[in-house]
Specification:
By secondary structure, the chain is α+β, with helices and mostly antiparallel strands. 45% of the residues lie in helices and 18% in strands. The protein is built from three helices and four strands; from the N terminus they run αβββαβα. The strands form two sheets. A two-stranded parallel sheet has the order 1-4. The protein has a two-stranded antiparallel sheet with strand order 2-3. Helix 1 packs parallel to helix 2.
Length: 101
């Protein structure tokens, strides 16, 4: 519900997470903003997802990170391929973060 999530979400993560108010993360990306957005796959939206995950790490978040809604992809009626991509993308980002530490 941000006007410019690609710019604003990191401050929100720091604020809420710094106060212990984040318990799990539905890790998804979007294009657009408040009341006018389109869900995208995590690598294809306005939010820098590697930066978002680094922000969660920096605040000490230790909860669950999971895919949320996925866009409909032709030939994937149940969304299994899209969810598999999202899980793989999250795992790759987590491996990248471990390598940075």
């Amino acid at each position: 519900m941000l006007k410019q999530p690609g710019d604003q979400i990191y401050d929100v993560i720091r604020d809420l997470g710094g106060r212990g108010k984040i318990f799990n993360v539905h890790f998804r990306n979007i294009r657009g903003g408040y009341l006018k957005f389109q869900e995208t796959l995590p690598d294809d939206g306005d939010v820098d997802m590697p930066r978002a995950l680094r922000t969660y790490r920096d605040i000490g978040f230790d909860g669950m990170i999971m895919p949320d809604h996925v866009p409909v992809i032709e030939g994937d009626p149940g969304g299994q391929k899209a969810f598999a991509f999202c899980f793989g993308y999250i795992q790759a980002l987590l491996q990248q973060l471990r390598a940075e530490a």
